[in-house]
Each structure stands twice: as structure tokens, then as C-alpha cells.
Design a protein that fits this description.
This protein has 419 residues and is mainly alpha-helical. Helices cover 87% and strands 0% of the residues. It starts with a helix and ends with a helix.
């Protein structure tokens, strides 16, 4: 009975997450068909801006909080969560006014300022509740919150626009996005409230918060650096080619990002916990076997994805039926190459992470920003539309070499120790 219950939980969890991934993957295709290219481009800018700003409001503090929650009696969880809430209020007070610069600088139009801040707050709350439910081993509830936040609303938005062509607008997309995020927050909060966590009356431990910040800030800097590439690319492309052309970039980037989602869900999420366990246990041979297995699985997923996407691209563009996407078709192939390189770079990344070698990861991520800026500056004039995707290829190739070299050096040290 226990086995069957566990199997049911895992199948339900996998099904919800798979449906979420499929919904996000399909959304961009339907938006390309329903919306004008410039509206799809604006959606891409808004989504990238909201996604990046989440790191400023959360500071990746969940990394420290989750470690503290696990192994602690739930009667004490309230004090930990209250401290994180206090930090979030401080971060809101600092960064919310600063984020107005996004609109004063013209990076986003004032027409979406209300949507930007509404979606940012809802997305942040839903994200933190999802992480809390994972830490509480409430995997199904975490998947439900994720599905509401990223999957269900996308399905409903597409259905509405399909059945009512007059609703085919960016406004409809943003409305359903807000509804989905709000439902995710409500569902997550209801579940957490029902857990009856204790110690909420404890005063905020600012010393504990400072301790946590010392732990997470190096990881935050590295995350902000690498995630900046997936935000700045859209803004730079829009600056070089215009908002209509950005619609094509957003479509192709959305297609390619599915590869990373599949790799994370099908390979990395299962591989790296075992790598950590083998490394901590001193099982070096098993660690190497795990690395080879992860590399092999990555190769299979990448090969299947590349073959399928190239095979289907023509039919998908014909279905969309808009010339701008055909004009920029070459951008897709460069973005696909960049995404493959990034996926490959995650193999040594997780190897270093399992070994506790954080410095090469942090340094390579920070260095990637400088490489990207230099490449775009040099290539903007001769390559124009291809400057951004080619620069990403250079950056992710450099990341692969940098992390791979660091992993080989660590392997050499380990071979000497274990021989």
C-alpha cells in the first residue's frame, strides 16, 4: 500500500509538472499566431523583466531558509518564515522604487507599469509558497501551485482567444496570467495556513537574517549574472532590430528554452542529488559513473530535441503564417546552438556543485556578462540580427570550457587522492 501511494504521488507530481511544461511550450506558438509580432515582443520583454526582478525581491534567500526548515520541528517554522517575510519587506522597500527606472529609462512602456508590478508581486508570493511546500515535502501541492502559476492560465488564455477572436490581445494574456498567479497564491497560502505552523509570535531575528545573507549573496550574484543573459538578450535585440523583430526572437527563444526545461526535469533533477550523496560518501567511482550517465542522458535529450525542432520548424512557421518569423528564421538556429551549449555547460556545473566547488561557478557566471557585452559590442554592426544569438553561443561555449576545465582539475586532484 505504501509503495502504491508513493507511486501515485510521483505519477501525479510528474503529470502536473509535465502538463505545466507542455502548456508553457505551447503558449508561445499560439501567441505568435494570435498576437501581432510587436505584442509578442512586448510580452517577452515584460516576462523577462518580471522574471529577473524576482531575484531582487527574493534574494535567493530560500536557499538558506530551506536548509534551516528541513530537520526543524514545524512548531518552530513560523519564526524562520517570519524572518524571511521581514527581509522581503525590506527588499520590497528598496527595490520596488528602483524598478520604476525600468519605465523612466524606456526599457518598458508606461502602458504596462500596472501589470508589471501586479504580476511581480503575485509571481514572487507564488514562487516562495511553492518553495515552502517543497521544503515541507508537500510535492503534489507544490506541483498544483506551479501548475496554476505557469500552466493552467496559459491553457485558459489560449482557449479564450481561440473561441473569441476579438479577445486576441496582449491584455487578455496579462489578465489570465494575473488570474493564474493569484489562484496559485490563494491555493498555496490556504495549504500553508492549514499546516498550523508555530512560533509566529517570536520576534524577528535580524542576526539570523544577516547570517543567511552571507550564505546566499555569493550564489545570488552568480545567479543574477547568468540570468541577466536571458533578460538582456531580449532588450539588446529589441534595441538593434525593433519590437516587431523581437516577436520572432521571443518565439524562437521560447522554443529553445523548452530544451532546458526538459533537461532539468528529465535529467538534472534526478542526477545531481545522487552526485552530491556519492561525493559526500567518498564514492568517487560511483560519482564518475553518475557524471558519465548524466552526460549520456543529456546527449540523448539534446539530440532528440534538435532533430525534432528542426524537423517541425517549417510546419510551425507555416501555421503561424506571418512573414516576420520567416525573415528571422536563421536566428532560431543560432539560438538553438546557444541553448545546446548552455545545456552541455550544466554537466560540469552540477559536477562542481556536487563537489562543493562554488568559486569556479560564481566566477564563470560573472565573467559571462563581460564576455556577452564585449561580443555584442563587436558584432552588433557586422551581424545585426545575429549579433545577440551569436554572442550567446560564444558566452555559453566559454562557460562550458571554463567549468569543464575546473572540473577536470578537481578530477585530477581526486584521482591522486583515491589512487
Amino acid at each position: 500500500m505504501i509503495f502504491l501511494n508513493t507511486l501515485l504521488v510521483r505519477l501525479t507530481n510528474a503529470g502536473l509538472r509535465g502538463l505545466t511544461l507542455l502548456s508553457k511550450f505551447a503558449l508561445v506558438f499560439f501567441l505568435a499566431g494570435f498576437l501581432e509580432p510587436q505584442d509578442l515582443g512586448l510580452y517577452g520583454l515584460l516576462a523577462a523583466g518580471v522574471g529577473y526582478s524576482l531575484y531582487l525581491l527574493g534574494f535567493d534567500f530560500y536557499i538558506f531558509t530551506t536548509r534551516e526548515l528541513i530537520g526543524t520541528n514545524r512548531s518552530s517554522w513560523g519564526a524562520i518564515l517570519k524572518a524571511q517575510c521581514a527581509l522581503s519587506l525590506v527588499l520590497y522597500g528598496i527595490f520596488m522604487p528602483l524598478l520604476m527606472l525600468v519605465f523612466f529609462s524606456g526599457l518598458l512602456p508606461w502602458a504596462v507599469v500596472g501589470w508589471f508590478f501586479l504580476l511581480l508581486v503575485l509571481e514572487h508570493l507564488a514562487q516562495e509558497l511553492n518553495r515552502l511546500l517543497i521544503a515541507a515535502s508537500e510535492q503534489i501541492w507544490a506541483s498544483i501551485v506551479l501548475f496554476l502559476r505557469s500552466g493552467l492560465w496559459a491553457i485558459l488564455a489560449v482557449v479564450v482567444m481561440w473561441m473569441a477572436p476579438e479577445r486576441q490581445s496582449l491584455e487578455t494574456v496579462l489578465q489570465w496570467w494575473a488570474v493564474g498567479s493569484a489562484l496559485a497564491v490563494l491555493t498555496g497560502f490556504t495549504k500553508v495556513y492549514g499546516m498550523r505552523l508555530g512560533s509566529w509570535d517570536t520576534s524577528v531575528d535580524w542576526g539570523w537574517i544577516r547570517k543567511g545573507l552571507k550564505v546566499v549573496i555569493p550564489f545570488l550574484v552568480a545567479t543574477l549574472a547568468v540570468r541577466a543573459l536571458f533578460t538582456a538578450d531580449r532588450y539588446v535585440f529589441e534595441y538593434l532590430q525593433g519590437l516587431q523583430a523581437l516577436g520572432a526572437y521571443v518565439l524562437f527563444a521560447g522554443m529553445c528554452s523548452a530544451l532546458l526545461a526538459f533537461l532539468d526535469a528529465a535529467v538534472f533533477a534526478f542526477a545531481y542529488p545522487k552526485l552530491i550523496a556519492d561525493w559526500k560518501a567518498g564514492q568517487y567511482d560511483r560519482f564518475l559513473t553518475g557524471m558519465k550517465s548524466m552526460a549520456m542522458q543529456t546527449s540523448v535529450v539534446v539530440t532528440l530535441f534538435v532533430f525534432s525542432s528542426v524537423l517541425l520548424l517549417g510546419s510551425l512557421l507555416d501555421w503561424i503564417g506571418k512573414t516576420v518569423y520567416l525573415e528571422y528564421e536563421e536566428v532560431f538556429y543560432w539560438l538553438l546552438a546557444a541553448t545546446v551549449l548552455y545545456g552541455v555547460s550544466m554537466i560540469p556545473h552540477y559536477g562542481l556543485y556536487a563537489m562543493g566547488e562554488d568559486k569556479p561557478i560564481i566566477r564563470s557566471h560573472i565573467g559571462s556578462i563581460f564576455v556577452f557585452c564585449i561580443c555584442v559590442f563587436v558584432l552588433a554592426e557586422p551581424l545585426r540580427a545575429l549579433a545577440v544569438p551569436v554572442s550567446l553561443c560564444v558566452v555559453f561555449a566559454a562557460l562550458t570550457i571554463w567549468k569543464g576545465g575546473a572540473l577536470l582539475r578537481q578530477r585530477g586532484k581526486c584521482s591522486a587522492i583515491y589512487s
